[in-house]
Specification:
mainly beta; Immunoglobulin-like; Beta-galactosidase, Chain A, domain 5; nine-stranded antiparallel sheet; six-stranded mixed sheet; 28 strands; globular
Length: 404
């Protein structure tokens, strides 16, 4: 892979606040470049730590990393991630604030101190066995959940308490702190309910067998086929910047074709949209749905900007949902109605490339105060798509002076 190369040397004097005036600390600089004529924030940059030429001994002893804004010498919130599960960090995630058409320098500092993980980090997800077997995830703006095999079996056995759905549920939060654990405790251990808003928001979004916010279907001969509940899960990361996990599904049938499906899902700080990477066998295209509920909303399609939105009245408020993908991957958009409860969805058909499809899906709720109307929501989607198409660029230094 070709990389931009610039010579840069980390300076220990930049790290006086960490006591390195006496100890020699090896550091490394990267530059982040914004090519757009607008300021950027709440966009996650992934630094490839395998591209950083620290000495092997330092890498072997590194327990965590710190990130320094080189111009202000201040520490930046970051999250180290072990992508392949081999016990060594592969990525360093952070969200820089960068002005229009600007480049900023940051310094990576390896540390031998273990960073303790917060109990409820801003970007959080977990399996919820106490509520049958949900999987729920959230950040500072939105929360989601979907349903597991026990909930499916209860329905199939005719027992109460089950849910049969591979749709994506939306939890309408209006606070920026974590609510998943609080709401489940409220629902299961008190007389209260997360279906009632007592100041933090509520769950009044109905999924049923609909696709909810970004569930998957496959269209064969004008019939939409869907999977059942996820069969297993793996939580990968939680932290201040990103939570990520994998949901696997039992093989299912779509018009005679056997479908194998995995959802690789992540949610970053400051985003209303989860990232979905669908790894799929048995289909060369998938349809991603947004439930239309009472069919009284507005569909907005901007293929060149890569988004589809459904904005609707929702009880005494308003709700917007959306799908964003690479414009070149969008094949068509269909408003599907068959008169059956929960089966009315706006479907975006996406091309499968090398067994994988990537899209973003999420929502806004007017009660959260994040966006006041459909116009503000669509402006957000347009900006989100533009930044996806012009991501912040990481420029790695050519060499590092190991004598520091």
């Amino acid at each position: 892979m070709k990389r931009h190369l610039l010579a840069a040397v980390g300076v220990c004097g930049a790290l006086v606040q960490f006591g390195c005036s006496e100890a020699k600390v090896e550091t490394y600089q990267v530059q982040i470049e914004n090519s757009l004529n607008e300021p950027r924030s709440f966009e996650t940059v992934e630094i490839d730590l395998n591209a950083v030429p620290f000495k092997q001994g330092i890498l072997a002893s590194t327990k965590s990393y710190e990130l320094i804004d080189f111009s202000t010498k201040t520490k930046i919130s970051s999250q180290a991630v072990d992508v392949d599960g081999d016990g060594h960090f592969d990525q360093l995630l952070f969200q820089p604030n960068i002005e229009a058409k600007a480049t900023k320098t940051f310094e990576i500092v390896p540390s031998e101190e273990i960073v303790e993980v917060e109990n409820d980090p801003a970007c959080y997800s977990r399996f919820v066995p106490e509520r049958t077997d949900d999987y729920a995830w959230e950040n500072n703006r939105v929360a989601f959940r979907t349903y597991g095999p026990t909930a499916q079996k209860l329905i199939e056995d005719g027992l109460p308490g089950g849910t049969l759905s591979s749709g994506i549920d939306a939890w309408l939060k209006k606070v920026d702190y974590p609510i998943i654990n609080k709401w489940y405790k409220k629902e299961l251990e008190t007389d209260g309910s997360y279906h009632e808003d007592t100041g933090e928001g509520l769950d009044n979004f109905h999924v049923g067998v609909s696709r909810g916010v970004g569930g998957v279907a496959i269209n064969k001969d004008s019939i939409y086929y869907i999977s059942k509940n996820f069969s297993s899960y793996e939580r990968l990361t939680t932290g201040p910047i990103r939570t990520s996990f994998v949901l696997k599904y039992a093989d299912w049938s779509a018009g005679g074709e056997v479908i194998t499906e995995e959802k690789h899902i992540s949610l970053d700080y400051g985003s209303n949209l989860s990232r979905f990477e669908i790894k799929i066998k048995g289909a060369d295209r998938i349809s991603v749905g947004l439930t239309m509920h009472e069919n009284d909303g507005k569909i907005s399609v901007s293929k060149d900007k890569g988004y589809v939105s459904y904005y609707q009245p929702h009880e005494e408020s308003e709700l917007g949902t959306a799908i964003i993908s690479d414009p070149e991957m969008i094949l068509q958009v269909e408003e599907y109605q068959n008169g059956k409860q929960d089966e009315n969805n706006v479907y975006t058909q996406l091309n499968v490339r090398e067994g994988s499809v990537v899209y973003y899906s999420g929502f806004t709720w007017k009660g959260s105060g994040q966006f006041s109307d459909v116009k503000e929501w669509e402006n957000y989607l347009e900006g989100f798509s533009r930044k996806l198409q012009h991501p912040l660029q990481v420029i790695y230094s050519k060499e590092q002076d190991s004598s520091l």
